[in-house]
Specification:
five-stranded mixed beta barrel; GMP Synthetase, Chain A, domain 3; alpha+beta; four-stranded antiparallel β-sheet; single chain
């Protein structure tokens, strides 16, 4: 995959790190695969794979067969077979790793559905391709106007022109079934092209458009995640997360895909915990489950009759109570078990590497004495100081004189 510097611009084209061909991943494309077999030769007598992977707009990729055995490398712009006509794209992967990608996508290497590569794109093909790409924003804007005029309940999210400019694919999202037969006629007459409508899900739309998530990074679905699985609210329940849709939903409006990343770890940790519907029987009454801290091994219970206080218990204590209840024994109360828990003291900050104290900015500043505003006040203060000094001097002289007279006597 690409590095973190490969952020996308408004046209969903990766900006790259300006390394000019020295990228550590081999290219600056979204969802690109690093060819780690490029410097390894094939065994004797084995022919290289004649299938290449071609990337189109917004990370859309397809496989094409190099029938004419053209010398194609990663980054070349090629003209491939379209439906109808031809399309233009960039080669994103060649060599033995194409077999791995075909197996991952479930495509047979000898399948007849794999179309062929026509030629390496000429300058005329590239000019027509760029001219067609430049019309996409205007086509999308006018297409939305036509949709609103027809009153269709759908959202046009993106438009992609074919490389020869004779066909355009309109990507849309809709909650219900949409009758767009009249829409196709209006679009074909307005732009004089062949129109293909393709419905995508909300997650696929977010992957195509891209963006920045709440974590501060680019969306996983638009950078490296290709397997978009369903996410249920049970994943949030297993991880003890609050079911707040504003925090759990992503830019697509669905639950975040990252809720599934740590789900297996939580499920493994929950195997040792008792079920949440288990009731603890005590002499003071039945206690029900409130919440838990999975990795610290703590559980909170409260009485059914008095829910004002929650009692913190360890996993071993809860298992002990459940085992006693199975043996038809009732524990005295939860307070006794809670009092047995020893709170671990927080370690103070230690100056190990010569760092300053963490509370060095917490010391209160000394208040400076205010200067008198009026000159009269300042003169009065000076006179008072002089008077006190003179009085202290006179007192010292008297004491010394008294001492001298006593010594003479």
């Amino acid at each position: 995959m690409s590095c973190n510097n490969c952020s996308s611009d408004i046209n969903t084209v990766p900006k790259g790190c300006k390394s000019n061909g020295n990228c550590g991943t081999g290219s600056c494309d979204k969802l690109s695969v690093f060819d780690w077999l490029s410097n390894m030769g094939l065994p004797t007598g084995q022919k290289p794979v004649n299938i290449v992977e071609v990337r189109f707009k917004n990370g859309r990729k397809h496989f094409y067969r190099n029938v004419d055995e053209l010398k194609i490398s990663i980054g070349d712009i090629v003209a491939v077979e379209g439906n109808p006509g031809h399309d233009v794209g960039t080669v994103s992967l060649t060599g033995e790793l194409v077999k791995v990608q075909l197996k991952k996508k479930g495509i047979d290497i000898n399948s007849e559905e794999i179309k062929k590569v026509y030629r390496i794109a000429s300058q005329k093909d590239i000019d027509i391709w760029q001219a067609a790409r430049n019309k996409e924003y205007e086509t999308q804007y006018k297409g939305r106007e036509i949709i609103s005029r027809l009153g269709l309940v759908m959202k046009l999210s993106d438009v992609e022109y074919q490389g020869d400019g004779n066909k355009a694919t309109f990507y849309y999202t809709a909650d219900d079934r949409v009758d767009f037969r009249q829409l196709i006629r209006d679009l074909a007459s307005a732009f004089s092209i062949r129109v293909e409508m393709k419905q995508v899900g909300l997650r696929q739309e977010a992957a195509r458009l891209g963006g920045v998530g709440s974590c501060g990074r680019e969306l996983c679905c638009s950078t490296w995640l290709t397997d978009l699985r369903n996410v249920n609210t049970t994943a949030a329940r297993y991880q003890q997360l609050s079911l707040n849709p504003q925090k759990l939903a992503g830019q697509c409006g669905k639950l975040k895909c990252c809720l599934n990343y740590e789900l297996d770890t939580y499920l493994d940790a929950l195997t040792d915990f008792p079920k949440q519907d288990v009731i603890l029987k005590t002499e003071k009454g039945d206690a029900i489950f409130v919440k838990m801290d999975i990795f610290k091994g703590l559980l909170w219970y409260t009485y059914k009759e008095d829910r004002n206080k929650w009692y913190k218990l360890t996993l071993e204590q809860v298992k002990e109570i459940i085992q006693l209840n199975k043996n038809k024994e009732v524990v005295p109360s939860l307070e006794e078990y809670e009092s047995e828990i020893i709170e671990s003291s927080n370690e103070a900050f230690e100056d190990v590497v010569g760092q300053d104290s963490l509370t060095r900015f917490d010391a209160p500043k000394r208040s400076k004495k205010r200067k008198p505003k009026n000159k009269n006040q300042q003169t009065q203060q000076n006179q008072q100081k002089k008077a006190t000094n003179q009085q202290s001097k006179s007192n010292i002289r008297r004491r010394s004189s008294n001492r001298n007279t006593n010594n003479k006597k």
